[in-house]
Specification:
- With 323 residues, this protein is mainly alpha-helical.
- The protein has 2 domains: 41 residues; 200 residues, no CATH class.
- It has 14 helices and 5 strands.
- The strands form 2 sheets. A 3-stranded mixed β-sheet has the order 3-5-4.
- The radius of gyration is 21 Å and the shape is globular.
- The structure holds zinc ion.
- Zinc ion binds next to helix 8.
Length: 323
């Protein structure tokens, strides 16, 4: 009897040790990720968001709604690469000029990743436009989409350039995928230094996702489901921050909370504005893509920075349109 009990206690201790180890690994990895991002990508600030009472009201307000998961957000599997490439013309219609990208293939990327390379960049990359970025449609991507990029760290220790390898997308309903594709394309256009705050990282891609949702589905239901999905995620991240003690582990969820709220505020402003203001907002996005202005300036100008975002659930859910 004693023997079984001893073994049981030992097993519990081992499990605790394993959990402790896993957690330490997670803390260290996150720390390394955030630190290297801030160093190389020239972010000046990467502090977790301090939650207010309003954030809690927001969270409660969202949870009273039926939750929307990735699955019910992307019903049906009818997207094709051809369709996605065709939707790139929408950027043009919106007046946003996308700049060329430096592409790197799988083989070369695996060869040089994490190693010193002092040859010519032109020997390992090719110049292309966004339509040349390979798209990998998959069933098992952890998020809806992502861009596989390789940052180039120069001798001055900064990243001025990111090599683009491919865009990953989860297969789904074509218009929903196209909106997510627009989000990922926006990431390929944002060069290091475009924002000083690490937590603003997702604001422009998330904003473009809303704009594309509106263009692709005039009924407004794609935009609405996108909005609910985003708010739902925001609520989950608020919970994550609340429960987390390690400050560093709050940084990533903070990014999504801050960027989502800013993108919603900017999209609300856009949808309720006349043609002239709409055009001006999109011109500003172009300027951020071209490195002619930073995102922080743009958010301040439209009072859509995190300090100005109204945390009223009704405002965040509502899309008031002017056409
Ligand atoms: Zn993103």
């Amino acid at each position: 009897m004693t023997k079984i009990k001893d073994e049981y206690i030992k097993m519990l201790n081992d499990l605790q040790e394993i959990e402790k180890y896993k957690r330490e690994m997670m803390i260290n990895n996150t720390k390394e990720f955030v630190e290297s991002s801030t160093t190389f990508f020239k972010y000046e600030k990467a502090e977790p968001l301090s939650l207010s009472k309003e954030h809690m009201y927001l969270k409660r307000g969202i949870q009273s709604d039926k939750s929307i998961t990735t699955k019910n957000r992307i019903p049906g599997f009818n997207v094709t690469k051809r369709y996605l490439i065709d939707t790139l013309s929408i950027w043009n219609e919106l007046g946003i000029r996308l700049h060329p990208v430096k592409l790197i293939d799988n083989y070369t990327m695996n060869q040089i990743e994490g190693k010193d390379y002092d040859g010519e960049l032109s020997d390992i990359t090719s110049d292309g436009f966004v339509e040349d970025i390979p798209i990998k449609l998959s069933m098992n991507v952890r998020t809806d989409g992502s861009v596989c990029m390789l940052p180039v760290i120069n001798s001055d220790g900064n990243v001025n350039l990111q090599l683009i390898n491919k865009v990953y997308l989860v297969r789904g309903e074509k218009r929903c995928c196209a909106a997510i594709y627009a989000h990922e394309i926006a990431h390929t256009q944002l060069d290091p230094g475009y924002t000083k705050d690490y937590l603003n990282r997702e604001a422009i891609p998330a904003f473009m996702e809303e704009i594309f949702s509106d263009v692709l589905d005039k009924s407004g239901s794609l935009l609405q489901s996108n909005r609910y999905f985003k708010l739902n995620l925001t609520a989950k991240y608020i919970d994550m921050i609340r429960k987390e003690e390690e400050s560093i582990l709050k940084v990533e969820p903070s990014t999504y909370i801050q960027s989502h709220l800013e993108s919603i505020a900017l999209a609300n402003l856009y949808f309720s504005s006349n043609r002239t203001i709409k055009k001006e907002i999109l011109e500003n996005v172009s300027k951020v893509f071209n490195g002619e202005q930073d995102l922080d300036n743009m958010l301040n100008r439209y009072e859509c920075g995190i300090d100005n975002v109204p945390l009223d659930i009704k405002i965040l859910k509502k899309v008031k349109k002017t056409r």
